[in-house]
Amino acid sequence: MKIVILNKPYDVLSQFREDEKHLTMSAFVDDPDLRLAGRLDMDSEGLVFLTDHGGLNQFITNPANKKYKTYLVQVDGDVTEDALAQLRKGVELKDGMTLPAQAYKVDEPEWLWERDPPVRFRASVPTSWIEISICEGRNRQVRRMTAAVGFPTLRLIRTKIGSIDLVQLGLQPGETKEIEPLLYPDFKDVPAAEPYRSRSYVKKPGGTGGKPIHQKKNKDGTTKKKSGTPRIWQMEESEKPRRKTNGTTRPNTKSRGRRAR
Questions:
Q1: Which one is catalytic: 30, 31, 41, 95?
Q2: Model confidence at 38: pLDDT above 90
Q3: Catalytic residue at 31?
Q4: In the chain, what are the domains?
Q5: Whole-prediction pTM value?
Q6: CB 247 within 8 A of CB 241
C-alpha cells in the first residue's frame, strides 16, 4: 500500500482531469497509480491522501471506523461557547443530524501560511478560529455546521486525518510526502485491496458481494484490451448465427413493410 500526503493549496480542484480555469492535482502529483482518498473542496486547503489502495477512501470516510478528520476553521464573528456546545452535541442540517463533533476555540497558529488570495478583511466584524474534528464525510459538512450555529466559515484547512498530522510533516502548500503506513496505527485495520467486483451481481446478506473480475494479462504483464462483442449488424453474412430448427419450421414470407395499395 502506497500513501502520499499532499498539502492542497486554495483554489485547486481535487481531481486529476485537467481544467481550463483552475489547477488540479496533476499540477503537484505525477503518478498514474495514485487516487484520491478523502477529497477537499476547491476553496479548502490542507491534508489530502493519495493512494493506490482501492478501499482506503471508504475506510477513512465510514463513520463506523471513527477516523476523525481535524480542521482549523476561521469563522465570521467571535464564536461563542453556546455555538461550540451545539457543534459538540450535533447540528441539524438539511440531510439530517450530524454526529457529535469535537470543537474548541483556538488562537490563530503561528505555523499557518498566508492564503492567496487572502480572506477579505472587515475592521467592523471580528473573526475567530475553531479546531473541529468530525468522523463523517458529508459534502461541505464543516462549512454547513458552522453556518448552522451562526458563524459562517471564511477559511478552512484540514490538518489531520487520524494520526496523520500535516503540521508535524511540515508540508507547505503544494508539497507532497510519501509516508510508511506501517508506522501509523491508523492503517493496521485497513482491509486488503480486492479486485473490482461486478455490479451486476446482487450482494446477499452475509455474502462477500459480486464476483471478482480478474483482468487477463499478456505475456509481458500488460492488461489485455477487450476486443468487444460484434453486434449482428456488424457481422458478415457467413458469421451471423443460424436459427436451429427441427426441419419443420416454415420460412417467414410475411411482408414487414406497409401493405401495398
A1: 41
A2: no
A3: no
A4: 1-67+162-195 (3.30.70.580), 69-160 (3.30.70.1560)
A5: 0.71
A6: no
